[in-house]
User: What shape does this take?
Amino acid sequence: MITVTLAKGDGIGPEIMDATLSVLNAAGADINFEEIEVGEKMYLNGHSTGISDKAWEKIRTNKILFKAPITTPQGGGYKSLNVTMRKTLGLYSNIRPCTSMHPFVQTKHPLMDVVIIRENEEDLYAGIEHQQTDEVVQCLKLISRPGCEKIITYAFEYAKRYGRKKVTCFTKDNIMKQTDGLFHQVFDEVAGRYPEIEKEHWIVDIGAALLADSPESFDVIVMPNLYGDVMSDIAAQIAGSVGLGGSANIGQECAMFEAIHGSAPNIAGKNIANPSGLINASVMMLNHIGQNIVAENIQNAWLRTIEDGVHTADVYDLVMSTKKVGTKEFAEAVIANLGKAPKQLPTVSYDNSTPLILPKYQRKPARDKKVVGVDLFVDWQGENPNELASKLQKLDNDELELVLITNRGVKVWPQGFKETFCTDHWRCRYAVKDGKELQKGKIIEVLKSALDHNVDAIKTENLYTFDGKRGYSLGQGQ
Ligand code: NAD
Assistant: This one.
């Protein structure tokens, strides 16, 4: 018997979890659940992270967590426990299958069968944000090569394991050439190792439009964190309902299984929530821990229940539904169908008993890194960039000279346009003269000189080349 940590969550969490546990129990899942308290109560009891040290200990010992949705209290600066858990436990891969149950659940996309694989640890979810000037705040978007390699390899291995034909990548690398550019580049590299699987890439805006319009043309889609978050909710909703989707968060050592939806406080305590998302998550968990027969039994019973037209209010439809039921009654209907197969929807059969876990990431040899300049960010309330440039040219030294000023990324000096709207946040680029390698001490000289000349420097960002290749973006219009 395996021990799994269990969290019943907030809002509709306890009701859908009890319903799911009744199904697991009736199907004979061989699991010992160890319950922990996380979420709203813990936040409000003074645990700023929403979880106690003791609960962390249990999660880390048992390695598998089965979790109902959690409410993050609004205001008060509480960080999302879901994001913290995924990142702290290294659960880099978020898998969300979105399959149409046509004609039994209303959808405009009867042939839809998409799996969204979302990077789960980085991107704008690093949560590194700062107010830098009176007018400007920033959020740091971090994309790493290990992060890209892990999630993209996972997507291709997933496609291989489950007989999927195509992996699509969504990025915005026409704009974010360094961050999304790296994701796309690694996608192309990894795809080259899987010639039997078709690969394609879409810029995320048109990709999202195509996904919403003709999801049947997609198979597996891999994305950085933010796009994956948005797109997987859209995909789940157009497949039928966000209430149906389960999700797996897989890492090197630990895994967490949950519904894709939130704690739905608007319908909590009414016995009307759909427990299907959590039931489907439990099927993913059973497969992960090698209890495939039980997983198969529950999934087929669930499909049969959906086919029978026994539906909760969120998917109830006058034409296809036969009975509107509550959370508990839906679970009872699934239990009554254990051992039965769907008649029209495809019956599932899970014969892979090993979880899909990739070998540990091996760090690559470091490339030749040279510092060739510095971006000095300045808080300045003036309006004329030429005036700022004259002030900043005084900070030049024997190795560094001012070459560019941008405002929110747009070049305003030299030869800016007077039409460009400027804030109080200026990026001022100092490049090494004669293309030599820069002594880092020269950057400190610029900073010191800024202090001497009463320039409000808010941060610096070094400019590097890696094996001679530029590791920073140019200014727009440069
Ligand atoms: P939500 O997913 O909770 O609800 C969105 C809408 O879908 C609501 O109308 C809700 O009634 C409906 N809905 C959701 N699940 C349903 C179900 N199983 N059956 C029937 N209808 C369902 O999203 P939200 O309102 O944006 O967020 C509410 C809270 O949940 C917030 O505190 C948020 O932080 C949290 N949240 C938690 C998780 C998680 O724990 N993984 C994920 C997302 C949001």
